[in-house]
Amino acid sequence: MAVKLPKKGGVFIQMEDEIASMASIIGASWTGARAMTATSGPGFSLMMENIGYAAMTETPCVVVNIQRGGPSTGQPTMGAQGDMMQCRFGSHGDYSVIALCPASVQEMYELTAKAFNLADKYRVPVFLMADEVVGHMREKIIIPDSVEQVPRKALVKGTLPFKADSDLIPGFPQFGKSYGVHVTGLTHDERGYPCATNPKLHESLVMRLVDKIESARREMADFDILNPDAELVFIAYGAPVRTVQQIMHDHPHDNIGFLRIRTVWPFPEYALGEFKNARHFLVPEMNLGQIAREIERHTKVSVTSLPKLGGELHTPAELLAAREAYR
Amino acid sequence: MSFEDWYRQDRLPHIYCAGCGNGTVVNCTLAAVEQMAWKKEDTVFVSGIGCSSRAPGYIVTDSLHTTHGRAIAFATGVKLANPDLHVVVFTGDGDLAAIGGNHFIHACRRNIDLTVVCMNNQIYGMTGGQGSPTTPLGCLSSTTPYGCAETPFDLCDLAIAAGANYVSRWTSYHVKELEKAVLAGLQTPGFSFIEALVQCPTAFGRRNKFKQVADHVEYLRSHSMLKAKHDRLLEQGEPVPTDMFIVGELMRRNRPALGVKP
Questions:
Q1: Is A301 exposed, middle or buried (0-12, 13-18, 19+ CB in 10 A)?
Q2: Is residue A92 within 8 Å of residue A52, measured between CB atoms?
Q3: pLDDT tens readout for residues B235-248
Q4: Are strands A232-236 and A257-261 parallel, antiparallel or unpaired?
Q5: What is the mean pLDDT of chain A?
Q6: What is the predicted pLDDT for the residue at A326?
Q7: Do residues A98 and A242 both lie within one domain?
Q8: One domain, residues A207 and A272
Q9: Residue B112 and residue B80: Cα distance in Å, rounded?
Q10: Chain A nearest C-alpha distance from B235 (Å)
């Protein structure tokens, strides 16, 4: 980005730490710019404070997390998916966000563009939750001539700046356009003014921040269903998708079911119901079953987590062995 | 036009305690902004957390009331993404020098084109009177009940050492000087830092033998020493009293600045 952004009329700055990086992209976003930052585990932890601020102030922004093994400094150059719950719940208080998980270089490109569109549409931080495997991957990529760009809905002059429309999303009052908007991380009313001790107002604000994302889960869902009549179904997102694709390629006649998810948050729980004959959901993740637990609470089908720690991707043999155990 | 036109009337009354010095600093800042003849739509006020940081909420322009200590980092993003905007940061001693200390020195180093006005009441006024990085040695606060044992920061020395283009210190007593200092800061490209020592009767004054607000303001006046006098004492080899605030324009230079439109 340091090389390419200035050539395209953009701005790049290396801030002093990830707290400041998150702060500066929020500041940039309020001027109408599309803004992003990128990090890994420890930096992601530092960003949590201002991620909550972005959620509360409905600031569109994109954060890329190339997940590594944790906790703490952990495994700086090894893959993991251990931050999936942190990206959903990591800042204090209740709020909802969007998280996308690429499994290839092509998807890294496509989902980055999609992340900006979702951020601008829903006025929310959007996370590109990749992992070291995808982050260091080298493979062919096709860059289209143009990319769809969904512009932010501008605030209609004369409307209160934090009064939501029927889609639960307020118009965006860009700085420098005479809106005179006050933006605060305090609980605020539709004027944007602090009203931190009003219980009803706080509840309705937080519920709107959550509902504007959760009620649109079908609209932003992004998943593929393969072999929906299968009894044994793998569910994966991010790098483990590649291992599942490998065993499906190696065993084309085995009717292995596969739900591969790109939009992990909000979780597209209704996709589970598409596998009518499912007896087992097998969930390979490079963590101790963070999304397996999410799947469990949405289905009566038995769910088995296939966790892998250590920084390496599941091998096809490991997934085949798991399949044998549950066949 | 008057500086009063910059106030967001429907947000008043403000939350500042009776006798607080912060309002004086906001008035001086807005009077300076008014003299710049900036358009309101081109001006953005940014702040963090604390008493000082409520100030942007009372101003009619676009304003960003952010997280504790991070105002300058947010302001950096605003300024770099749109250098046409004039960006002013209100902060306090705890916000700026404790949790925000790293952002402060790096903004000085980058010399980014912001004006930062610090209301230094030498204590955490909003949260219960805890000691801050500028609480003087021996002073009482809720976390230094036996007297502060830590040497305070000199915020202006810090800004100068880190590279800011413009640095001034005044107090809430010196309203005309403070207004001129803010004006000079707004006019100077690069990072401008204006420290305003202010009285805080609620958290600092009542613990530190300033029974009347006027006593504290008088203390700020009588313990201010002009930089010229300070320099003269040094030159003559005379002792410089250690309990004095050095006030005046402490730095004005022209290091390369970031975020200035070519």
A1: middle
A2: yes
A3: 999 999 989 999 99
A4: parallel
A5: 97
A6: 86
A7: no
A8: no
A9: 9
A10: 38
| Extended beta strands in A204-251, E state | 223-226, 232-236
Identify whether residues A181 and A288 lie together within a single domain.
no
Note down the domain range covering A288.
223-326
Q: At what angle do helices A18-30 and A41-57 cross, to 10 degrees?
A: 30
The last residue of a domain, from among A168, A198, A220:
A220
| Residue among A1, A13, A25, A193 with most chain B CBs within 10 A, to mutate | A13
Please indicate, yes or no, whether residues A53 and A199 belong to a single structural domain of this protein.
Answer: yes
The confidence score (pLDDT) of residue A43 equals 98
Q: Which residues of A touch B84 (CB under 8 A)?
A: 176
A15, A31, A184 ranked by CB distance to B78: nearest: A31
- Answer whether B201's CB lies under 8 Å from B216's CB: yes
Half-sphere exposure of B222 (CA within 13 A, CB side): 6
Establish if A275 belongs to a structural domain.
Answer: yes
Domain boundaries, chain B: 3-8+17-252
CA dist B162 and B190 (Å) reads 13
Asked if the structure places residue A227 within a domain, the reply is yes
pLDDT-derived band at B103 (thresholds 50, 70, 90) equals very high
> Under an 8 Å CB criterion, which residues of A touch B?
11, 13, 15-17, 19-20, 23-33, 35, 49-50, 53, 173, 175-186, 193-194
Could you report the per-residue pLDDT of A102-159, keeping only the tens digit for each?
999 999 999 999 999 999 999 999 999 999 999 999 999 999 999 999 999 999 999 9
- Supply the CATH number for residue A38's domain: 3.40.50.970
Which among A5, A15, A16 is the top mutation candidate for probing chain B, defined by the most B β-carbons within 10 Å of its own β-carbon?
A: A16
> Which fold does the domain B3-8+17-252 belong to in CATH?
Rossmann fold (3.40.50)
In a domain, A4, yes or no: no
Quickly state the pLDDT bin for A254 (edges 50, 70, 90).
very high
What band does A209 get if pLDDT is binned at 50, 70 and 90?
Answer: very high
Contacts of B40 in chain A (CB under 8 A): 178, 180
Residues A180 and A100 in one domain: yes
For chain A, what is the domain count?
Answer: 2
| Residue A5 domain-assigned (yes or no) | no
Residue B42 contacts A, CB cutoff 8 Å: yes
In the sheet that B192-197 helps form, which strands lie side by side, from edge to edge? A182-184, B62-65, B43-47, B86-92, B115-120, B192-197, B166-171, B245-252, B224-226
Looking at the complex, does the CB of residue B41 fall below 8 Å from at least one CB of chain A? yes
Of A204, A220, A236, which closes a domain?
A: A220
Nearest to A175 among B11, B62, B70 (CB): B62
pLDDT beyond 80 at B82: yes
